[in-house]
Amino acid sequence: MNYAEIETFLTAVELKSISAAAKKLYISQGTASHRIQNLEADLEIQLFFRQPGQKQLVLTKSGEEFLSLAKQWKSLYQETHHLKFQQHLTHLSVAGIESVNTFALLPFYKDFALQHPEIKLKLSTYHSNEIYELLNKGAIDLGFTYAYANYPTVQVEALFTEPMVLVTQQTSVLPEVLSLRELDPGKEIYINWGVDFEIWHREQFPSSAEQWITAGNCHMQLSLLDFTDSWAFLPLSVAKQLDPNHYRQVDFIEDPLQKTCYCLTPASLLPDKEAVLGILLEDMKQFLSVRGF
């Protein structure tokens, strides 16, 4: 008794026909019949009634009793082989904040998945504090965020640094170069990019004027930039992904805020996970270097 024989039997039962089962399994009808005969010989029972002119297969009583066992046998066989196969794969669970995952690193994830099919990536997006907590609990293997925090169970390393840039529509009245004091806060689509950004932003706009719209996430901020003459501060990695036919960067004379993206890993790792993380991070650093980060 083997998998091919069990699969042929179950398919024949499902379709009530040996010829239909053979067609579905891409084998000859003779091969399908031979498999079922071998199965009956091994079990020393008759599985189907065989009568002249019979249009559909009908299980014998013994065949009906064996049917449930055959389904269990197939399920156990598949689970066993799945477990065996999984031992040769490495899974990595990676979490990042939205802007890093979706813009800065998404092209890398695509390239890495194609180059390393043996490494199975699980990609998730969370807030910074959630990423630290997930690493602290051992629920993920790797995290990326702009926020720095001290956790005894988490190692934090600077991955890349990028400037915050000013973006507006191509049709905006804003000049190519300006001072931030010339901007109208009433046209800003604002996101809080962290404590350092809040401090820098207050220094540049000391008046009590409030931003026009505060967006909850990066995708929302980009959608709201469709308003006439609206503007926003974005990390350079996000701005690079925008359609140049619709958006443009505006240079400003003040020093831009530099945002650092941090790579977070567990303080202790199993040797196999540590080796795979090393491969991913080495490839990632090369990817970022080529793109000027």
TrEMBL record:
Pfam families on file: HTH_1, LysR_substrate
Domain HTH lysR-type: 1-60
Regions annotated as coiled coil: none
Lineage: superkingdom: Bacteria
Molecular function as annotated in GO: DNA-binding transcription factor activity; transcription cis-regulatory region binding
Keywords assigned: DNA-binding, Transcription, Transcription regulation
Protein family per UniProt: Belongs to the LysR transcriptional regulatory family.
Record protein name field: Transcriptional regulator, LysR family
